[in-house]
């Protein structure tokens, strides 16, 4: 059976005219939602006939042809369904940055001590390409240098502020809101001011708080002659980002920066029988509730959970709810819970009318794909930004955790669902419109990503994709030298003009004075 699949794959690969490649994927961060995207990518490449070796925390349950796990699970604690609401509510921007910079680095050092990681570090395997996550600490980027292979970076969110520089991608604070600031594309003066301040400070901060400590770590792990990670990062051939202009807003990009928003999304599959029945038999449709793969809903403050239950009980719709607790206190009869639910398949069911979500990017993109309106309760990281985009596109309502009451929930849900209200049609139409814009592409996100990865392999790192902007020092990139000369020129010209006019006036007036004194 497996040999047959292998044979078919090999034939497909041959038909591609292709040389199949040996590709190393390195995903040392143990975020499950991040890995959803990378796993789909690596599987897609293995289905194309490439041999992929994937360092990750989520090994395949069944072996796949051409796909080989470098299993580092167990090296660090699993964080799935592990966070309390009180914990994530303390996560402000400062905490987030320290998580992204410090936590990912300290954790990486532990992950790389795993025997399987150690084997990879010492391996003499010949790879054709390396694909790795770019998130916080680039503690594994030295592998691209060690194996002397072209480097592809993947970002599971919209671009982070430090995503752009390495390939010279333009970033502009006048209309592109920072990942860490949840503004829309049209910013007021105050918003542009703060966005610009972020733009100016965050990359130097990333250098001092992230790159420098990671360079030290890098030397400890890979030896003293390893180049600084900033230098290795400059060799990045391609960056695949989980954004799409239909939802993230249009932005200028260099050819090596490719938007593959929704790459993790697969064709909807058949639902489990009980869920299918529950949904099919709902007279008024279904509301789907999930706060994602990290947060335990049972840790919501009791009054918040009660508000939610009271609101659900008042709905004619049925509610499907992701809930990992043992019992759900006050569970109304129209609510069905599951510890894990097939989210995209539920969102794609025709009876699904609404998604109540924390605004994690993966789920948000799935709702966009399915054309389902959202009630967003953003809690941390990019969730505020994601929900903001959906609100601006006119298919979402945001509720702050502090404002969660039965009334606020019902009001938000009714706004989106009540057919008697005019709003309902607008929200639903906007969700469908955005869905159409999101899906209408020349190729699927996966096909696009595969194309560009194979392009990089075909062109041996494709150095011709690199923008010259990537090599300019900041003062040249921002034209500070040219602007200085221009300003100096204008100032000198004005000053000279002033001197000349003053001398002429003096001459004239002085002459008059002299004439006057002569006459006297
Ligand atoms: C999360 O996981 C860690 C490590 O396994 C454990 O110590 C902690 O108690 C867990 N937290 C929760 C809220 O379950
Ligand atoms: C960048 O890539 C080139 C070409 O593959 C290689 O010679 C060089 O060593 C790489 N630089 C670093 C810092 O890894």
Automatic annotation (TrEMBL):
Q: Which CDD domains match?
A: GT1_Gtf-like
Species of provenance: Timema podura (Walking stick)
Name of this chain's protein: UDP-glucuronosyltransferase
Q: Which family does it belong to?
A: Belongs to the UDP-glycosyltransferase family.
Compartment(s) of residence:
Membrane
Q: Which PANTHER family match?
A: EG:EG0003.4 PROTEIN-RELATED, FI06409P-RELATED
Sorted alphabetically, the keyword list is:
Glycosyltransferase, Membrane, Signal, Transferase, Transmembrane, Transmembrane helix
Annotated signal sequence is: 1-20
Q: Gene3D superfamilies per the record?
A: Glycogen Phosphorylase B
Q: How does it sit in the membrane?
A: Single-pass membrane protein
Transmembrane intervals: 482-509
